[in-house]
Amino acid sequence: MHSSHGALLFLAPLILLLWFIVALVALGVSLWRGRSLSKWYWTTLGSAVLVGGILSTPQTFYQWMFIESFAKSAHSADLMCYAAAEGNARTVRGYLEHGVPLEATDYEGSTAMYAAAAGGSVPVLQMLLMKGARIDATNSYGDSPLDIAIENKHPEAVALLKSHGASQIHGTPEQREAASQAIVRKEMSRLASTQ
């Protein structure tokens, strides 16, 4: 958001909405006055519809469409954990099938198992358990999937994890502080390298 490009992307839906309103007003005025509309108008309206269609396409469509290249990226574990937290079992399975390790961790040291527990996604948890994911893999803060499922109040996920013998592990204050500092340092380093 610090760059003008980021602000433009953030404002894109609002700009598109204004674009539609102006186009509809122009259409209404032209029809009321009995005038024909120019090619420029139809091109503009067609472009607005195309952009609106692209922006309204569900994110999971793009994840699945480009999953092979996403799975090869440096952020593949983050993307897989995000899909797990969102409950998208198909996308998580796709990342695994394209070579992302089952125990890959995101920037907080969380596995897909942890992310699915955080999101309360029972189907993703079941799929990961069938593939052999470690049920008590803790993140950088020292928290287990069962701990986050309990904290986020996901009773179905808690019941599933307990039925498979999960332990509630909660990180110590020292672990949490060390993890927080490490994550901040890593992010500061990343930001410094991009400038």
Description:
The protein is built from 11 helices and no strands. Helix 1 crosses helix 2 (39-56), helix 5 (76-86) packs antiparallel against helix 6 (89-97) and helix 7 packs parallel to helix 9. The chain has 2 domains: 4-56, no CATH class; 62-194, Serine Threonine Protein Phosphatase 5, Tetratricopeptide repeat. The protein has helices spanning 4-33, 39-56, 59-65, 67-71, 76-86, 89-97, 112-119, 122-130, 145-151, 155-163, 173-194. It has 195 residues and is mainly alpha-helical. The radius of gyration is 23 Å and the shape is elongated.
Number of helices: 11
CATH architecture of the largest domain: Alpha Horseshoe
Largest sheet: none
Shape: elongated
Q: Using DSSP, what is the number of strands?
A: 0
Q: What is the CATH homologous superfamily assignment of the largest domain?
A: Ankyrin repeat-containing domain
CATH topology of the largest domain: Serine Threonine Protein Phosphatase 5, Tetratricopeptide repeat
N→C terminal distance? 14 Å
Task: State which percent range the strand residues make up.
Answer: under 5%
Structural class: mainly alpha
What proportion of the residues is helical, as a percent range? 55-70%
User: Which parts are unreliable, with pLDDT below 50 for 5 consecutive residues or more?
Assistant: none
Q: Rg from C-alpha positions?
A: 23 Å
